[in-house]
């Protein structure tokens, strides 16, 4: 995984009282005092690069933990751990195997540390039913988690859960009723929870609802509530979250009591787009041991945009004299880091699949790794079996070595979802460039007579939009495989592209791979 370096404290331009502050940061263990301009140039986003939308964050002792929407990819809700909010390492997943009650749309996990008790509220689509908010519990954040299934399933859909206790200690579940899916208003509800925090009790009450003539448009969603100086603050996102036409932003409201009445900030939205980031929103706050508040949320990078998906970004919350919060001084997400070129290299020497590989929901692959090889076994039935990784740059080159004894078509592929992808594969003595879309599978180029025991396959991306595939019989001299492929229609509405390894063929046939590399430029 690529990690990024971020400041631990930032100077922020105060939104209302007109002065600027410097701050002390720690970069590579060296303490230094910097001006605001220097801090903004040193700050790095994203903190979790690639497609990691709707992030949640909690602190347990000296460790921070985050998870994000996994959508229609498995395993559900990959976990990352950090001790400094800057450097994050993979830590498994909340659900290594898909919860049986849901078919997909695994959205918006909300980790909770309630006086040492660990929970996650999350969204899934009930089999034969609507979107639901569900819950799981664990003794430790790294799991294992015990799933308790749905808590609330309204006919229009229930999404974006959050947790808060009121001024008397009563626990509440907050969520959005997904009215916009039916062209209806989108209320944010709060309802008491039972003492085990796993069931609703009492009556629900509306906290806020979208104002169609404002910046919110047809949607308010993604509630997150915190307390500051005796008041409750409700962060929420508004308008359209995803895709090329998105116009998402983040607002805030405040109240003296959890159930209101709620007053929306006149300066909303408090987080909007800028020259580096588009459509920011849907976040969670965390407090450091020193008492500083940070907000972890997502945004599309202007460079790479929908091809990378919505990346997790982090900025500090500051509080003005009149009691309203600002995130990065109201200037939108901090500028992205100038990350050097990096490389992922997986030689498949471990006995378990690396934690950064993913697969489609409802179709867990038969995969084996070890002794320098990854073997995918095809299930047939018109399916392609694959594992894939998140991309962290729109400019990249990925490569793989394919063995001659692969009975299935063994491909390197760029994937939007299970039904939208393109790749270059080998089966026996044949190479095949192919594309899968809503109209089926298409062979774009083919050559036969490849007798080499090993073939190297490679895909290179230009700005995320155009792909060039090539192959080599010795790992040194490369030949083009067909022409360039335009993939502007490959990204799905709410997720970025991934690069992966794919097996396609009759049930029981295998695809055998060696030494995967992914170089980001």
Secondary-structure blueprint:
Layout: E1 23-27, E2 30-34, H1 36-42, E3 56-60, E4 63-67, E5 73-74, E6 76-82, E7 89-95, E8 107-114, E9 117-125, E10 131-138, E11 146-152, E12 158-165, E13 171-177, E14 188-192, E15 205-208, E16 220-228, E17 231-238, E18 249-255, E19 263-264, E20 277-287, E21 293-301, H2 305-308, E22 311-319, E23 325-327, E24 342-346, E25 359-360, E26 366-370, E27 373-377, E28 384-390, E29 396-403, E30 409-417, E31 420-427, E32 430-437, E33 440-447, E34 454-462, E35 466-472, E36 479-480, E37 485-486, E38 498-504, E39 510-520
Antiparallel strand pairs: 1-2, 3-4, 4-6, 5-25, 6-7, 8-9, 9-10, 10-11, 12-13, 13-14, 14-15, 16-17, 17-18, 18-19, 20-21, 21-22, 22-23, 24-39, 26-27, 27-39, 28-38, 29-34, 29-39, 30-31, 30-38, 31-32, 32-33, 34-35, 35-36, 35-37
> What separation lies between the terminal Cα atoms?
14 Å
Instruction: Count every helix, treating DSSP H or I runs of 4 or more residues as helices.
Output: 2
**Secondary structure tally: strands:** 39
Mean pLDDT: 90
The major pleated sheet works out as: 9 strands, antiparallel
* Strand residue content: over 45%
SSE-based structural type: mainly beta
Oligomer: single chain
Portion in helices: under 10%
Shape: elongated
**Uncertain spans, ≥5 residues at pLDDT below 50?**
1-43
C-alpha Rg (nearest Å): 24 Å
